[in-house]
Design a protein that fits this description.
This protein has 364 residues and is of the alpha+beta class. The protein has nine helices and twelve strands. Among the domains are: 20-50; 58-242, Sandwich (Jelly Rolls), CATH 2.60.120. The chain has helices spanning 3-40, 44-50, 181-186, 190-196, 202-209, 221-226, 256-281, 294-328, 358-363; strands at 68-71, 74-79, 93-99, 103-109, 115-119, 123-129, 136-142, 146-149, 154-158, 165-171, 179-180, 217-218. The strands form two sheets. The protein has a six-stranded antiparallel beta sheet, with no helix packed on it. The chain is elongated, with a radius of gyration of 41 Å. GO terms for molecular function: manganese ion binding.
Length: 364
């Protein structure tokens, strides 16, 4: 009795989806046509007349899907020529970024624009390298402050706090572009990447490439522990497509299990190293200060150092004992035994022969 109803609902849903997809495709085609007309317009007045009043407004709270860059640590909404035709010919774009607690906008650069970033709330930590031969520039940008990030500079933003922060960035190009450094580097031929990293094997390059998450990732382990957060699965949709020139060698691949295992081992090693350093620098820190790991590490470190110390003491004791024996033997002298029983030893007397004198022989 329900079969005709279910079939009718399925057909209706399929029709709605098809109509929605058709409408989206038509809207995209109309926007592309409008952008093409704006780019070829013979003056600003013509561009203005091609736009409707509403075309001059961009809704950052309800943007078109293609304007959003989403990651596990936050997202960015960009109003540029790709989704906001009104900026065509005006030489600017604008982005609004939303960083979650411990969120990191990974190192990237804008190939065609300089960025002026304004912190709306909280504090945003930024780092930048302009080019080879220049120093690393580090700043904490507080609410109400801004920072200039020159065109082509490699930079990042991180929210090293436990509350969300927002920033606004103005870019002096309607098509600024964004080049994520990690994805682009590992998108090169694996042999080139391995050689650039100091002759790392191709298998390792493939595994590392398969572990790179999208921009806007969850940040440092220290921040995550401090804020009580865990690093879960992160999207990895921004990988550079593989073609003949940068393809992985046949038979070499990194499965999800291998990548996850490598990630877990790397984080475990890095965390253990950090805990050891913290234990050495602050051996009396409470166990809760670093998630309860400092105290066991401190105990283990003390045991290892104690065992090594005992070993060195034993070696030192053996060395000095041998040295003392050698010194006692230095003053000894050899005593020739007495020969009071010498008569018991048989002896043979050898007659003494006169020395031969040739002159005496002739005279005789």
């Amino acid at each position: 009795m329900f079969s005709p109803l279910l079939v009718s609902l399925a057909v209706s849903a399929a029709g709605v989806l098809a109509q929605s997809a058709s409408s989206a495709a038509a809207a995209a085609a109309a926007e592309a046509s409008l952008v093409a007309q704006l780019k070829t317009a013979n003056g600003a007045a013509t561009r203005v007349n091609l736009l409707s009043d509403s075309d001059f407004v961009f809704d950052f709270e309800n943007p078109p899907p293609k304007a959003i860059t989403q990651g596990a640590g936050g997202h960015l909404v960009l109003a540029s020529v790709a989704d906001f035709p009104a900026v065509v010919g005006n030489g600017l774009a604008m982005a609004v970024g939303f960083l979650e607690p411990c969120g990191l906008n990974t190192p990237h650069l804008h190939p065609r624009a300089t960025e002026l970033l304004y912190a709306v709330n909280g504090t945003i930590t930024t780092g930048m390298i302009q080019q080879g031969g220049t120093r690393f520039i580090f700043n904490n940008v507080t609410a109400g402050s801004g920072i200039v990030l020159p065109q082509g500079s490699v930079h990042f933003q991180i929210n090293d706090n436990c509350d969300p922060v927002t920033f606004v960035s103005a870019l002096n190009n309607e098509d600024p572009g964004a080049s994520p450094v990690a994805q682009l580097f590992f998108g090169m031929p694996p042999g080139v990447v391995g050689a650039s990293l100091g002759d790392v094997g191709v298998q390792e390059v493939v595994q590392l490439a398969s572990m790179i998450p999208d921009t806007f990732v969850l940040g440092t382990d220290e921040c995550l522990q401090r804020c009580g957060l865990t690093r879960g699965a992160q999207p990895m949709a921004q990988q550079v497509p593989r073609v003949a020139g940068n393809a992985f060698p046949s038979g070499v691949s990194a499965g999800a299990g291998a990548a996850a295992s490598s990630t877990s081992q790397s984080r475990s090693i890095m965390q253990t190293s950090a805990d050891l350093v913290a234990a050495i620098e602050n051996p009396v820190a409470p166990s809760g200060a670093r998630g309860g790991t400092t105290q066991p590490v401190t105990i283990a470190l003390i045991v290892v150092v104690s065992v090594l110390g005992v070993g060195y003491l034993v070696l030192g004791a053996l060395f000095f004992m041998n040295r003392a024996r050698g010194e006692r033997g230095t003053g000894r002298s050899f005593m020739r035994p007495t020969m009071k029983d010498r008569a018991l030893v048989p002896t043979v007397e050898v007659p003494t022969l006169d020395k031969y004198d040739p002159i005496a022989s002739r005279s005789s």
